[in-house]
């Protein structure tokens, strides 16, 4: 028994294929990226080693880099303070309604999350279009025509317009996670509270929200990491523009590499990007460590 | 069940209306898209928010299907996804078993190393992988997508599989080993059938992620031959810039497969999302 389960050859056979492909496509590239980040490579020819020059330039004088980070923080705040409270309220409503509608609504709200981002992004470009877009038409319909905008093309509205797309698309995600959390709260606790005289709103502020704390924290962490990683929607709608009004890190490094052929510089941004993601992950895991998650 | 009985009929109606209105709002952009995909291209400029297509312009879908190269891209998507999903399922089952049940010194460390992948953004590997794939001459091939798709799906899949295999009672395997079964027979004849729920979850979540993936496909594929379904939409935005109805038709066609898979398997998707979120 022990012998069969400790056979080194079998273990190697089971683990190696997956481990190799994972190392080849994830770890090795990141190490290469650290090296390329210390060169002034353009993508062709020989890389020229310049040490930490790129990193210095990014941190001390690249305004777009900082703007991208700031935009990510805006997106994270929008997730946490706008999308999440609504998602939580709707999760509670879906959980309450029960029966067939519960399943139907749970399914409906998640639909935008499964539609390819290429489709949703192009769709929103149309929705925002100043000439024929739905958004301006609705404003006209509501006699709010003076609010009509060139949503994605205007410095003032580009970022908020992109953030709205992200919130729309990710709403089902946030909702589903809260919903799963609600399912984990035992019904007896509500019964007990009711016997003690708690009613309506008090039940939620005194029982649901406190017991949901671990889930809320997980959801917050996911939202912040998502905000940091934002790329596809931006790439397919504004490509960071106009100027750098709606730029995000991943898209920025992409532009630097493939549009301005600053491959080395882009890799340096990429390395800082990984560090930022790891730091956020580790930070949140540390401060939430004491909680145990149950689903 | 007590939850249902605890809310009054009137409250239930209010909830239904609220949820209904909001879900219509959430889905309205999609309805708008499908609506105008059936109209004449110029109709979208009218003042109407929605328009009854009369008669419905099915021709838009025919043009979209043909000029969007849907059949060709669809086959590419199927090949890339089936191979990726198959490998992810196979590898995560094998690795999951080795991590949970087999005894080796490095087990925990290697598992941690693989789960580290949950924290690494795919975008950080776009540039170096482009260089590596170019050097190996696999840019513009199925490999250029299958390799990173498998690699990036593995951490999540291994996470789900280790959790699931750990909950399977050992008794069956023990007696199988006493009967002289090897690891591979145990894995494929005992563990595999028992792990079906977890494997379905892994399959569906991996499928949805890779099927909808665009940025790696856009970076690693340079010619038309291997392009996947999202490119139908992307190409059209340029080529048919002013023919909105056909653009909307191609978008509707491309959205359909994921939508069908999701509606058919929505229990598994829900489970995959919520389980994955714990470690997200």
From TrEMBL, chain A:
The keyword Protease does not apply. Gene3D superfamilies: MetI-like. Residues 69-284 form the ABC transmembrane type-1 domain. InterPro entries: MetI-like, MetI-like_sf, UgpAE/MalFG_permease. One of its GO terms (biological process) is transmembrane transport. It holds the Pfam family BPD_transp_1. It is a multi-pass membrane protein. It is found in: Cell membrane. The chain crosses the membrane at residues 12-36, 72-92, 104-125, 159-180, 263-284. The keyword Ribonucleoprotein does not apply. GO terms for cellular component: plasma membrane. Keywords: Cell membrane, Membrane, Transmembrane, Transmembrane helix, Transport. Belongs to the binding-protein-dependent transport system permease family. This is Binding-protein-dependent transport systems inner membrane component. The lineage of its organism: Bacteria, Bacillati, Bacillota, Bacillota incertae sedis, Caldicellulosiruptorales.
TrEMBL record, chain B:
The keyword Transmembrane applies. One of its GO terms (cellular component) is plasma membrane. It comes from the Bacteria. Residues 74-265 form the ABC transmembrane type-1 domain. The keyword Aminoacyl-tRNA synthetase does not apply. The chain crosses the membrane at residues 12-34, 73-98, 110-130, 142-164, 244-265. Its main location: membrane. InterPro entries: MetI-like, MetI-like_sf. One of its GO terms (biological process) is transmembrane transport. It is found in: Cell membrane. It holds the Pfam family BPD_transp_1. It is a multi-pass membrane protein. Keywords: Cell membrane, Membrane, Transmembrane, Transmembrane helix, Transport. Belongs to the binding-protein-dependent transport system permease family. This is Binding-protein-dependent transport systems inner membrane component. It comes from Caldicellulosiruptor kronotskyensis (strain DSM 18902 / VKM B-2412 / 2002).
């Amino acid at each position: 028994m022990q012998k069969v389960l400790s056979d080194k050859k079998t273990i190697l056979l089971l683990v190696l294929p997956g481990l190799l492909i994972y190392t080849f496509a994830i770890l090795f590239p990141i190490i290469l990226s650290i090296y390329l980040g210390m060169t002034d490579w353009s993508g062709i020819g020989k890389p020229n080693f310049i040490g930490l020059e790129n990193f210095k330039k990014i941190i001390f004088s690249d305004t777009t880099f900082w703007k991208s980070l700031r935009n990510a923080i805006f997106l994270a705040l929008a997730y946490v303070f706008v999308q999440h409270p609504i998602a939580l309220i709707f999760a509670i409503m879906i959980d309450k309604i029960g029966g067939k509608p519960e399943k139907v609504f749970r399914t409906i709200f998640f639909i935008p999350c499964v539609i390819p981002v290429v489709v949703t992004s192009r769709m929103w470009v149309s929705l925002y279009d100043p000439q024929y877009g739905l958004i301006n038409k609705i404003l006209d319909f509501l006699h709010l025509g003076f609010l009509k905008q060139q949503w994605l093309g205007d410095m003032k509205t580009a970022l908020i317009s992109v953030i709205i797309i992200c919130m729309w698309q990710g709403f089902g995600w946030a909702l589903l996670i809260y919903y799963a959390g609600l399912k984990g709260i035992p019904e007896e606790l509500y019964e007990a509270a009711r016997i003690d005289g708690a009613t309506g709103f008090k039940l939620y502020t005194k029982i649901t929200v406190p017991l949901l704390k671990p889930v809320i924290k997980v959801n917050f962490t996911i939202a912040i990491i998502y905000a940091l990683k934002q790329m596809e929607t931006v790439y397919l709608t504004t490509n960071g523009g106009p100027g750098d009004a709606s730029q995000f890190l991943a898209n920025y490094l992409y532009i630097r590499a493939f549009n301005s052929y600053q491959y080395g510089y882009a890799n340096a941004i990429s390395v800082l990007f990984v560090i930022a993601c790891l730091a956020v992950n580790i930070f949140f895991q540390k401060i939430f460590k004491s909680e145990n998650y149950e689903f | 069940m007590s939850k249902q009985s605890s809310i009054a009929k009137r409250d239930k109606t209010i909830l239904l209306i609220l949820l209904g209105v909001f879900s219509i709002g959430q889905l309205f952009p999609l309805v708008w898209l499908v609506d105008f995909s059936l109209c004449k291209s110029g109709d979208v400029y009218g003042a109407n928010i929605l328009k009854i297509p009369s008669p419905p312009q099915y021709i838009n879908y025919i043009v979209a299907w043909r000029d969007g190269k849907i059949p060709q891209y669809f086959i590419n998507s199927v090949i890339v996804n089936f191979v990726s999903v198959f490998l992810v399922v196979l590898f995560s089952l094998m690795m999951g078993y080795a991590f949970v049940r087999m005894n080796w010194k490095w087990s925990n460390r290697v598992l941690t190393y693989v789960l580290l992948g949950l924290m690494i953004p795919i975008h950080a590997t776009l540039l170096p992988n482009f260089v590596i794939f170019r050097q190996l001459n696999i840019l513009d091939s199925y490999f250029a997508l299958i390799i990173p798709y498998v690699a990036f799906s593995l951490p999540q899949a291994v996470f789900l599989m280790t959790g699931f295999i750990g909950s399977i009672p050992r008794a069956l395997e023990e007696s199988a080993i006493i009967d002289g079964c090897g690891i591979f027979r145990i894995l494929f004849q005992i563990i595999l059938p028992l792990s079906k729920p977890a494997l379905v979850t892994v399959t569906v979540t991996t499928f949805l992620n890779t099927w909808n993936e665009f940025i790696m496909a856009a970076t690693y594929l340079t010619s038309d031959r291997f392009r996947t379904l999202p490119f139908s939409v992307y190409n059209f935005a340029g080529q048919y810039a002013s023919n909105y109805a056909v653009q909307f038709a191609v978008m509707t066609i491309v959205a359909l497969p994921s939508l069908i898979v999701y509606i058919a398997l929505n229990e598994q998707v829900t489970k995959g999302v919520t389980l994955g979120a714990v470690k997200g």
